[in-house]
Amino acid sequence: MDEGYIKFEASWSRTAPFGGALITELIHWRQQLYDLKLIGAYTHNIGYGNISLRRPGPELSFFISGSATGLIPQATAAHFSLVTAVDIARNKVACEGPVIASSEAMSHAAIYLSDPAIQCVMHIHHARLWREYLNILPTTPLEVAYGSPEMAAALAAIVKDSASRKKEILVTAGHEEGLFAYGETPEQAFAAIRKIFPGS
Q1: β-strands 92-97, 9-14 pairing
Q2: Model pLDDT, residue 16
Q3: Residue 1 counted as domain residue
Q4: Which of 43, 64, 173, 188 could anchor a disulfide with 142, C-beta 3.0 to 4.6 Å?
Q5: What are the C-alpha distances in Å from 145 to residues 83, 128, 149, 161, 172?
Q6: What value does the CA radius of gyration of the chain take, rounded to a whole number of Å?
Q7: Is the separation of the CB atoms in 137 and 170 below 8 Å?
Q8: Residue 32 domain-assigned?
């Protein structure tokens, strides 16, 4: 399994943890997903799932949970990174913070770039949901692997399609157990997940 491995070229500047309302909000919603086991770690201590929030400003930047933080039971500000630049075509991500950005940072960026109204992206793992909604909800091609420019392009194509955009959730066929939810608020993204996963 190559889950969790960073496939893009990362430019990371280590800094102190960030503070503020967006980090507080991320910690809250990340905990909701962790408690539902939609973010977590496999038995071999490889983390899965991540969450991000767009930062206000003219250029795209967003806070995202750090690489290999899925196994942390209670996240703190020390477990989030700020993505400051993304070049999907050249497979590059620039970030700063106490941890390097999640291996899915480029996928999150592709969703944000596809629709400026989207403010939150949640990437979850759940085997049953993945099997149940594969090719039922908007689904990326089977041959497209996670964390790649091809995945970013596939996600962007889905989000840019008006009919798919309204679903607010999609499935990654080539990234087993993976689903993405997105919305104009964390509440909206989380509600999209709860529509297909009402209970634990």
Answers
A1: parallel
A2: 98
A3: no
A4: 173
A5: 21, 20, 9, 21, 8
A6: 15
A7: yes
A8: yes
- What gap in Å lies between CA 22 and CA 27, rounded to an integer? 9
**CA 43 – CA 30 distance, rounded (Å):** 20
Task: Indicate the pairing of strand 80-87 with strand 92-97.
Answer: antiparallel
Domains identified in the chain, total number: 1
Looking up residue 83, the CATH number of its domain turns out to be 3.40.225.10
Predicted local confidence at residue 1, as pLDDT = 45
Residue 142: other Cβ atoms inside 10 A: 12
In angstroms, what CA-CA distances link 20 with 23, 27, 55, 89? 6, 11, 11, 32
Half-sphere exposure of 144 (CA within 13 A, CB side): 19
| Whole-angstrom distance, CA of residue 83 vs CA of residue 85 | 6
What pLDDT shows up at residue 148? 83
10-residue mean pLDDT series, the chain (200 residues):
62 96 98 96 86 95 95 97 94 95 92 95 96 96 88 93 84 94 97 88
Q: What is the residue range of 44's domain?
A: 9-196
This prediction's pTM: 0.94
Contact 49, 146 (CB under 8 A): no
Distance of CA 157 to the CA centre of its chain: 16
Reference 191, options 122, 113, 110; nearest CA is 122
